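2024-03-11 09:14:02 INFO receiving multi-entity request
2024-03-11 09:14:02 INFO entity count = two
2024-03-11 09:14:03 INFO echoing inputs for audit
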Amino acid sequence: MANLPPHLEQYRKIIESRAKDLGLDFFNTIFEVVSYDKINELAAYGGFPTRYPHWKFGMEYEKLSKSYAYGLSKIYEMVINTDPCYAYLMEGNSNLDQKLVMAHVYGHCDFFKNNVWFSKTNRKMVDSMANHGVRISRYIDRYGLTAVEQFLDRCLSLENLIDRYGIYNEKPKPQSEIVMPNFNFKAENPYMDRFINPPDVIKKQEEKFISDKLASMKYPQNPEKDVLNFLIFNAPLDDWQQDILSIIRDEAYYFSPQGLTKTLNEGWASYWHSTILNHQDIMNPSEFIEFADKNAGVLQMSSNSYNPYKVGIELLRDIEYRWNTGRFGREWEDCDDVRERNNWSKKTLLGREKIFEVRKLHNDVSLISEFVNADFCHRQKMFVYKFDPNLKQFVVDTKDVEAIKKQLLFAMHNFGQPMIWVENANHDNRGELLLKHLHEGHDLQPQYMDETMRNLFHIWKRPVCIQTKMNEDEMIFKFDGHLFTNKKVDS
Amino acid sequence: MSIRKDQGRFRDIIKGRVRDNLKKYISHSSMTGKSEKDLVKIPIDSIDIPNFRFGKDESQQGVGQGEEGQGDGENGQPGNGSKAGSEAGDHIFEVELSIQELADILGESLQLPALLPKGDKNLKALSKKYSSLAPVGPAGLRKFKNTYKKALQRSISSGKYNYANPNVIPNKPDFVFKSAKETKKPFAKAVVFYLMDISGSMGDAEKQVVRTEIFWINAWLQKHYKGLESRFLVHEAKSWEVKEDEFFRISASGGTLISSSYDLCLDIISKEYDPADWNIYVFQFSDGDNWSGEDSLKCMSLLKDELLPIVNSFNYGQVESKYGSGNFYKEFERYNLDQHEKIRRSIVRSLDGILNSIKDFLGKG
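2024-03-11 09:21:47 INFO inference complete, emitting structure
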């Protein structure tokens, strides 16, 4: 690994061995020092050096490089979840920054390798992405930039319609079976049976029954949450279009677990960078102040936004503390005496073990719902704010733990994307596509919904509908290629 | 690098957006008076890929952390916390384009032909480029790599090279320097005269139209002629020359004698611009309200006998004012000059008409 300059390579070795000693388990990790411009480029491409050509990466790059040029933001680290892991350090960062980032990266790599939500990820994604790029470039050569770009835009518009949790469930979905009724009449004498129940008639009746049944059955039988997959197999697409749609779907699934575990992953990496760096071989005394400053910057509380690094690391530390002191289990839950609770001290010392278990099994949703409690919210000074139209400013709404959890979980569930599935591909018996949105208190944004339906129409090529709640009414919105219509649904 | 391609594509898309709304931006008065390298910020609706997402909820709830009561500082105001999804499409993307780029877009959307130096007045200009190597030169231009290579070659071939102790010392003949190469570039000398009527009959609105149009014509021409000279003349009953920045601000009143500006223009040409060496363009803008028919007659004869033979083209734009349109536009027909190949005329009614008028002037190349 001669990618690093010697002084960094020397630290990398120490950090790597310390991380291993502490129990982290990661893929081989390859670091590379790159210039700010290159890191902006890589970040625009989501970390991958080769992606398919698309203007959205150009837009991202322009935003990143502008905000870097104006000093608004700077990318410290980037790591891609593959085997081996690739991580980028930015040229010109201070030595301490680089050490901190390396330690942080080892935390991420350990998480990528061991967290169960990453178990389905393609670890050779660098190659796959490059292949995707080549395939799409070839389509551009053959069908022209305009056609391919337009189709890509449409696919990207549906990118979030995947089944984020479904891929972990390997049981096949139950298919309802057709139960054949008995068409035979009872014959007193067996020899009469042939005359009372002529076989060819019976056979015809059975065939008719099956075809009637199939026609009346809706398709798909069960709601299909993997909308992209459904479209790949059921929409009237050309081969190349099918291929592009499946590329978009593959990449969406690749990035999905990172969205589902943002808080835990960042918390885990932050926990480890501070643990690993706290060692005389790695940090010399003159760097302590800088370290404290940088660390505080990463973990600062913000009254106007949610900092996944902060919440993640504090939760992990809280869990470690609780399991070290035995603050868990039936006995602890049932204890009402404040003084006793404060002085609770059983030397269980299970903390480390517990957080390793947490990093293996949890995602953000399960982490928050299981480990955030009133104590934690109080100590972390968490609150729910809302906009007060009278005061024309934001005010603290509540500090109730359930409200805080509800707010957090809503934002995290399904990566903050609405849950939408294919309800019926033959809506109204006219081959229209009916999607259904599970309304959980938040309406869809209407203009975006219309534009997305326009894109969906071009893929399905028949009218498309979506059932959702808008301003308290259950509605079906429909786009038939020319007009948007809507009607209320009687429930 | 592929990001350059994607970025280029993104910028093309932006430029497309700007082109679609060109009228709006072009007639924006805040741009006139900027130089060609200046950047202008143009707000366009965010370019976004639509998807099913949550709308803004009215209460704008979110989760924050910190002390209560610190919410009055600059950062204290909770903004958009861990709210679901991203904000709806009400944020605006600002693109920075230079006046030159805008002029380009203008040209594309009006399908203006690229102007090329005309006639045989083209000169070849010599330009220097440091693209070749030489054995002699100043130390500052020494090419270390090439020098070292030569020294290495020499020391190996002469057998002096010691693999255990690889010292390579370049001698005088090893030195290589960057050297300039002279190339010939086509070069055209061109001058544009802008003549503006600033008499009392020209109101502020009319002047604004004229200035905006001149600004964009100038931007377009500047783009196509390197080193184009622009001269700005104004006139009422008499005529004088002003500086560019003054030209876009000046106001005056008084009578109108259009011939005075022709006189001044001819005067400047005879003193400074030899028609044999120069491409000369004239753009005249007025409300067409000349003081007398006599003066118009003088104008036409000046034009016919003195100006037209030496200029590449003569362009007359007439602004419609609230007093109606003057009759100078028709004078061209009276004196059989309206069909002259070097003369182009256009009537501008309002700021919105500027694009068409520019096309009238420049559309034919």
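2024-03-11 09:21:48 INFO post-check: The radius of gyration of chain B is 30 Å.
2024-03-11 09:21:48 INFO post-check: DSSP finds ten helices and eleven strands in chain B.
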